């Protein structure tokens, strides 16, 4: 016969069975965003007011493109997980499920739009450089 203490049965179990995992993900993504967002604002701010060619050339460089992709990926995942917790706390039933699906769909849609725009800017800049040669 196996003997399990109360502590042994509770290890790794939050209210949902994965509370610790969620807490650590949100903590790590918050710390990452605390560094990424100010850097992104500074980088993005330097592109504001430029012509389309200047903005495309700016975001075609590796650092601004990678930074923008990271901010988008981490930020949208953080948003989706945080909104899911909020919705689980304050809604019930089918409404909860529908809203969680909507929030995840919205975050994935926004991520896809930003990554597509970045890819298109990199391709446009590469094509423009090839035409100028």
TrEMBL record:
One of its GO terms (molecular function) is metal ion binding. Pfam families: Sdh_cyt (PF01127). It is a multi-pass membrane protein. The chain crosses the membrane at residues 23-47, 59-79, 99-118. Gene3D superfamilies: Fumarate reductase/succinate dehydrogenase, transmembrane subunit. Pathway: Carbohydrate metabolism; tricarboxylic acid cycle. Its cofactor is heme. Keywords: Electron transport, Heme, Iron, Membrane, Metal-binding, Transmembrane, Transmembrane helix, Transport, Tricarboxylic acid cycle. InterPro entries: SQR/QFR_C/D, Succ_DH_anchor, SuccDH_FuR_B_TM-su. SUPFAM superfamilies: Fumarate reductase respiratory complex transmembrane subunits. It is found in: Membrane. GO terms for cellular component: membrane. GO terms for biological process: tricarboxylic acid cycle. Part of an enzyme complex containing four subunits: a flavoprotein, an iron-sulfur protein, plus two membrane-anchoring proteins, SdhC and SdhD. Membrane-anchoring subunit of succinate dehydrogenase (SDH). This is Succinate dehydrogenase hydrophobic membrane anchor subunit. The lineage of its organism: Bacteria, Pseudomonadati, Pseudomonadota, Alphaproteobacteria, Rhodobacterales.
